[in-house]
Amino acid sequence: MTKEKTEQLRTLDHKEMGKRIRKRREAKGLSRENLAERLSVSPQFIADIEYGNKGISIKRLYWLCQILDVTSDYILAGNVYSQDEDEDAVKVCEEIMGLLQRCDARQLEGIRGIAEIYADSMRIK
Known about the structure:
globular; 2 domains; mainly alpha; 8 helices; 434 Repressor (Amino-terminal Domain)
């Protein structure tokens, strides 16, 4: 790898990674104990990961992504979308995600219905 390429690489921020795991765990309604049981680890290990004090094996990261229904790219780097996507589209998606995070389940169901109607109407055109 060239020096230019390595200068572009980001470092892994364990504390931010832990925050994303905790946020997603809570959004899925899982306690640390529930998640620990599913990953075959202790609740303290989950706490250590969430506080950024410990890392996680690839095998458990793979399981964690399945349990939390997220990509490893999201867990590791916070990327919700591919870096190769159009920057304007990514910005709009991030703004929409911010708005959606403020909604409760009932509101999200309504928004999904609106989005389906809109997407269907755009396919027809």
